[in-house]
Amino acid sequence: MMKKVFMLICLIFVLVIAQAAMAEEEAPLPLKAQERMEMVLYGEPMTGGLIERLGKVEKDLFGRELPGSISERQSGLLNFIENGTLGNPSMLFKLSVAEWSVNHKVNPESPVSTRIDALETLLEGKPQVDKPLAMRLERMLSLLFPDTLTWTEVELPANTVFKAAFTQTISPAVAKKGDQVKLALAQDLVVDGNLVAPRGSLVFAEIDNVKPPRSFGRPSEITFAFKHLVPLGPEVVPVFMGDKAISVNKDNKTMAIAAGTSVVGLVALGPVGLAGGFFVKGDAKEIPAGTNIYLETSQVVTVHAWPVPPGLQGMIKEAEDMPVPSDSATSEETLSEGENADEAKD
Predict the structure, then answer these.
(1) Which of 63, 244, 265, 270 could form a disulfide with 325 if both were Cys (CB 3.0 to 4.6 A apart)?
(2) Among 83, 118, 149, which residue terminates a domain?
C-alpha cells in the first residue's frame, strides 16, 4: 500500500509543477501567497525567510522541496491545496470528503495539519507525524475508499434552501458594522447524489448595521448581509435571504425560539441595495451560537462535487425536518414587512 501511495505522490509532484506553469500569471504576491498557505496548513503564519518557509511547506506536504522558481512553486502548491490539478481534486476537497466519511461533518476552521492528525487518531489510534501530510492523506483515502477519489461538475440550482447555524453568539451590545459572521451548514447539500457541501461547511456573512435598544421601548436591531457558502470545490456559492428562505424561517420559527425574541423580522433587502440581507429585531440581548436559520442560493452555480458511491448514499444527512416553503410568503408580503420595519426605526 505504501508503494502505491508513494507513486501517487510522485504523480502529484508532476501535476503540481505542470499546473504552476499555467497559473503563474495569476500568482499572488510571494509573501501573501506564503501566508495564505501557512494559514491553511498550520493556522498561523510562520517566521523566517521566504525561501526557508516555502521549503518547510513543501517538505511538510511531500517530504522534499520542489524544483522551480518561487512563483512557480507557490502557484503549484496553492493549486494543489485549494484548486485541484489537471482533473485531480484538491487536497482540501479530499480531506473534507475523508472527514465527512468518518465524522459525518467537516471542520474547515481547523488547519489541515490538525484535521489530518485528528483523522489518523480516529482511524489508527495516533497521528503519523513523521510522514508528509499529502502521503498521510492519500493513505487514509486508500483505507476509506476502494477506488480513487474523483470529483464531477454539477449545477446547483438557484433558490436552493438550506439550513445553517451561527457559529458565534451575536450581541447588539458589542457587534459592529463590518464584522464578519460565520455560520456552519447544518445539513449535507446534495445534487442528484453528488455531495456539494457537507455538514459543517462555512457560510460567510457580514453585519451591515446595528441599532441598540432605543427610547420609547424600541428594540435592538441587527442587519446582516449574507455573502457565500464555501462548498467542497474551489468555487463559492452566493447566498441570500430570499422569499423561499423567509417562508421556511417563518414556518419553522427557528430564530424566534432560539433567540428568545418577542418579535423577529425577516425582511429581504435585495436585490436592489443590500443584496441578501435581513434584520432581526426583538427584546433578546443576543443571538446565541447554534441558532439555526434557513438561507438560499441566489443564482445557478456550477460547482465541483463528490459523486457519493452507492454504498455510502445512506450517510447523506439532508434537512429532513425542513418545512416546505409556504406560497403565502410573496415578495409583496416581504416588502410590506420592510415598510413596517422602517416605520419602527423612525
Answers:
(1) 244
(2) 149
